[in-house]
Structure formats: structure tokens, C-alpha cells
Amino acid sequence: MAKRKNVIKEAIKKAVISFKNPNYRQKIKYFNFFRTLTAILIALVITFVILLFVSKEPFSAITALLFSPFKSKFWIGEILRASVPLVFAGVAASIMLKCGQFNMIGEGSFYLGGFVAALIAIYLPVSSFLAIVIACLAAIVVTIIFGFIPAILKAKLNVNEFVVSLMLNFIMLWVGMFFLQNYFRDEASGDIATRLIPDENRLGILLKGTYLSTGILIALIIVILSTIFLYKTKYGYTIRITGNNKNFAKFSGLSAMSAIIYSQVIGSAIAGLGGAVEILGGIDGRFSWKALPGYGFDGFIVAILASNNPLLTPLAALFLAYLRTGATLMSLQTDVASELIQIIQAIIIIIVAGQAFMARYKNKIFKNAEETVLKSSSEGQ
Q: Other C-beta atoms within 10 Å of 56: how many?
């Protein structure tokens, strides 16, 4: 028994030395970046091959996909605008995945956060900046409450968070739809939608000649705060350790249960804020979502591309928004349907998420890095 404890302590010691060492962490970052970049390139090559068979003008289609989004200020603005909800969703997913929690609540939180924010902005008897702040805070509070449900069930009863959050998404959707149709629907709109949000209670346009709102600034602030939280605070450290190895976190005296709870709750809150920003800065000027918006699922694509690092989510979100904008223009200018971009996304995710992809190379560089770290540590002692 004593021998087993010594083995465990030695393993923990080695893991802590490796985890805290900058050289080891940098090797991991470089590998994840290289693997993601390789997956993207493979996906694009496969896409180009597909275009050769499905299009009569394959080279025109490729040109439209890759270069058309940069031909005008408007379309550049569209890339930036489309990336905003993806940043929120990506950060939310990254924090939960960092803790090893595959929670899909971002989908429902986006929907409910947008709905609550719209109601506050329309009916609260205040205007301008204060109304926007209160609307965003209300969206956060409501989605925090819902976020506790799968978090508590996972932490206390070990109920699968994926299943709970997936079902909870539809509860959030139909609760919102019930109130929208029966109490807050604007009959004059001819649609299932709220009244128009007053202009003074909406986020302003940041770039003239486009629909890009100041919501992108809020998204960047969330990226910075989330990065500081994950990498510069005790709570963020606990989340990362728990995600790497829950048992290791327990042996180290960290509260894995707390990490499981607040990683999911924070993720839900960020997604809720993303929904609020999307509606308050949206083109429609009212809430009219009759289905889940899909951003929660997109968040996992962004998180995987960003290696679950909030600081990299803007780049991943911009890349995804660029591909989607390019696909839209490609479908308008050529004979290729924009749905082709779904194939690119699927290929990238399958390759990056596949544990076997570049596994031999991964094991080799990690082993070399760990040996170097442990050697330098023993020499220091």
C-alpha cells in the first residue's frame, strides 16, 4: 500500500513538473497548432478535388470561395460580423472543454439570452447605454440559472452533461417560443417576432457601410477576460487540471467538483451574453428566432480549431466566418451550392478531433519534451 502511494506521488510530481514547465507547454501548443493547420490544408485540398468533379467551372468556384470575401468593404464587414457570435460560442465551449465537460447548453443559452435581452431592451422604461447593460446582465443571469442544472447533476450525481444539456436546449427553446407566441408577439410584423427594439437601445454600427456592430468589441473583451481567468487565476488552473485528469486534481487537493460546476455555468453565461449581443446588434432589429440558432454547435467547431484556447477563438471564428462568407459568394457567382462548406467543416473536425491523427508524432515530441523537463528539474535539485 505504501509502495503504491509512493508511485502515485511520484507520478503526480512528474505531471506537475511537466505541466508547469513553459517548454513542455510550448511543445503542446506547437503540436496542436501544426495538427490543426494540417487538418485545414487537407480539408481544403479535398474540397478542391470535389469541386473538380461537381462544378463546370471549378477554378472560378475556388477563386470565388477564397478571394471574393476580400473584394469589398461590405463583405469584409460581413466576415467580421459573422465571427462575433462564433467568438462567444467558441469561448463558452473552450472553457467547458478545458474542464473535460462536453456540454451543449450554449445552443439554448444563445437562444434564451437573445430573447431575454430583446424583452428588456423593448419594455424596460430606460434607454440607451443603461438599457443595453441591463439587457446583457439579464441574459447572463437567466442563462446562469439554466447552466446550473446540468452542472449540478454532473457534479453531484455524475449524470451525463451532454444528454442533460441537449434536452435542456429544447426546454429553453419551447419556453421562449411559448412566451414569444402568447405574450410578446408583434402581430403587425406578420411573423412570430417581438416588436422592434428602439434604435437607442441597440448596439451601434462600428464600421460604416457594413452591418458590423460594436458587439465585436464586447466579444474581444470576453476573450481577454476568459484568457486571464483560465491561465492567471486559481479557478482557471483548477479547471485545466480537472480537464487533464480528474483523479490527479483530487490527489492534488483541488476541488474537481467545483471546477465542473463553474466551468459549465460560466460557459452558459458567456453563450447567453453572445445571444444578447447578436440580437441587440443584429440586422433584424427584433427577436425572431423560431428555432435554435446553431451557434452552440458552431462553438465546438471554433473551440476545436482554437485548441480550446480562448485567446485563439477570434482567429478560429474569423476563419470559419471567412469560409462561410466565401461559400455564400461562391454559390451566387458559380454553379456550386454553399452547402459544400459543411463538408469542409466536417472534414476538419473529423481530422482534428481524431485521436489517431498524427498520434505517433504527438507521442514522440511529448516524450522528448517530458524527458527534457524532468532532466532539467533533477539537475536543478
A: 9
